[in-house]
Amino acid sequence: MFTGIVEHLGEVIDVKEEGTNKHFTIKSGITHELQIDQSVSHNGVCLTVVSIKDENYVVTAIDETLQKTNLGSLKIGDKVNLERSLTLDKRIDGHMVQGHVDTTANCIKMEAQDGSWLYRFSLDEQFSELMVEKGSICVSGTSLTIFDVNKGEFSVAIIPYTYEHTIFHQLKEGSVVNIEFDMMGKYILKYLKKMNISG
C-alpha cells in the first residue's frame, strides 16, 4: 500500500529481457534503505526488490505488467517515480494507493502557467465513470486531484515542487502515464453495479 507521495527519482541504468519478463536495474538515493522482497512503487507500479548492490537494485516486471503499464517502454537513462510502501506510523499525505495500475493515459496537452503547469490526459472512455471532479487519482505514482473531467479526459495542475521532484518535468504531449483510480471509488462502483443501482 502506498500514498502517491513520490519519495525519490530513480534512474534506469540497465534493462535485461528474460523470456517475456524484463529486469530493471535502478540507481537510487534510497537503495541503502531497501531490503530484498520489499515492495516499491515504480511510476505507480508495485514491484518487488530482487537484488541490491551498492546504489543499485533490481526489480522484475512480468509480461502482464509490461502490457498494461508504461514500464515496457522504459529505457536506460529514464527517470522513475519511487515510493516505498506505507508504514503504520506514517502520515497519509496523498490517498490510499495499491500500486495496481488500471490503465494508461496519453498526455494531450502541457501548458506552463504562472507558477504551475497544467497537464491534460486522455484515456479510454470506459473509465470515465471512475473519475470524479475534484477527486483523487494516481498518475505514474503521484497522488493528484483531477478537474475538468469530460468524456475520457481530465486535467491536473502541478506545483513547482512536484514538477521538479517527479517525472512530470520529463512529460510532454504524447507521453504515456500509468493510471490508478481511487480504490474506494472502484469498490463502490462495483457494489452499485452488482445491486443494479448504478443509474
TrEMBL record:
Q: Which UniProt keywords apply?
A: Repeat, Riboflavin biosynthesis, Transferase
According to its UniProt entry, the function of this protein is described as: Catalyzes the dismutation of two molecules of 6,7-dimethyl-8-ribityllumazine, resulting in the formation of riboflavin and 5-amino-6-(D-ribitylamino)uracil.
Name of the protein = Riboflavin synthase
Species of provenance? Portibacter lacus
Reactions catalysed, semicolon-separated, are: 2 6,7-dimethyl-8-(1-D-ribityl)lumazine + H(+) = 5-amino-6-(D-ribitylamino)uracil + riboflavin
Would the keyword Transferase turn up in this protein's UniProt record?
yes
Domain of life from the UniProt record: Bacteria
Gene Ontology process terms (BP): riboflavin biosynthetic process
